[in-house]
Amino acid sequence: MVNVIGLGYIGLPTALMMAAHGVEVVGTDYNAELVATLNAGHTTFKEEGLDQLFADAVKDGVKFTTEYQICDTYIVSVPTPYDKVNKKIDPAYVVAACKAVLEVAPEKAILVVESTISPGTIDRFVRPLLVETDRQDVALVHAPERIIPGNMVSELLHNNRTIGADDPEVGKRVAALYASFCQGEIALTGIRTAEMTKVVENTFRAVNIAFANELAKVCRVGGMDVHEVIRIANKHPRVNILNPGPGVGGHCIPVDPWFLVGDYPETANFIRLALQTNASMSEYVLHRAYEAMRENGIDDPSKVGIYGLTYKEDVDDVRESPTLQMLEAQAEHLGGAAMKVYDPWVERDVVPNQVHSMEEFLDGLEMVIVMVGHSQVKGKPKVFGNRALIDPRNVMGDGGNVWKL
Fold first, then answer.
1. Is 98 a catalytic residue?
2. What is the pLDDT of residue 285?
């Protein structure tokens, strides 16, 4: 039996996928309300294919509880935030989960950490727990998740995976467990290398996004269309520039690279600059909005609305959302008046002045900042009538009163 610890955006799909492929799985989370929701037959967030996967897993016997189980394999999939002051990983959730596992784990159990962690985290924070509790019989493994909201089910099935283990034989056993559903290649390596590869993957993406964002600023100063520049440059067979945008959200790209900056502050200078560039984009969009307001004769920020609250299109995930980052700076840059916010994917109230229908959102607005290209509006500027549009993601198309980066 496998006990999956943490039933959030990563742990829940992992538990469901294993259960739906013949593995006996119990999911554990300290959040009793979340567990009750799952036991009542409801998923806890929106995701393509998740409801069907949930139904399949329930039929195949998956269980949910707040209690840690006695079993031979544990998968810890809990959040790993970072300290925004020193930029180092905060391992508190991982440490707490591992401690709880060690209290109930039978002899020679396998403890798999799926949470994204900085290189050396297991050596610094998890391995000492085995010594403190005299549980050196427990085998440690790191199997970093590699999926993205919006395509979780497909990526769980098809993405390659990495298994880092002290003992190659233990690594093979864990690889066989993931192979119950994973159709991608499963690479076996050491724990520290597995830790590093996951952080490097997200850092690579962060740096590439930062290049596109800085290029947008350069082109703006130089009077060029950054999207036209990128379109033509990408015709080169070895060039693949990403698109600029209003910032980077989610729990991976804007967070994980900071682990390297925090642990290697004297050497990760290029990474630091890239992350600072990405973090600057929400305020940059505000400045562009202020320019557009002035040119359109809008002097009341309450007549400007923000469409999109999630960090990417067609998901309900608001973690590290560029919109949230922009709202934090709103008072300083737009005079303190609260702008209305609407996102069709976010049903719960997340921010002040959030409304829950397009009609209510558009009422009284003269300008809209389109922060997320949900399918509801992508390529459909007419949805917003004749209002001026700020389009930092370049999702609305050309024509009309549309302002891009």
1. no
2. 93
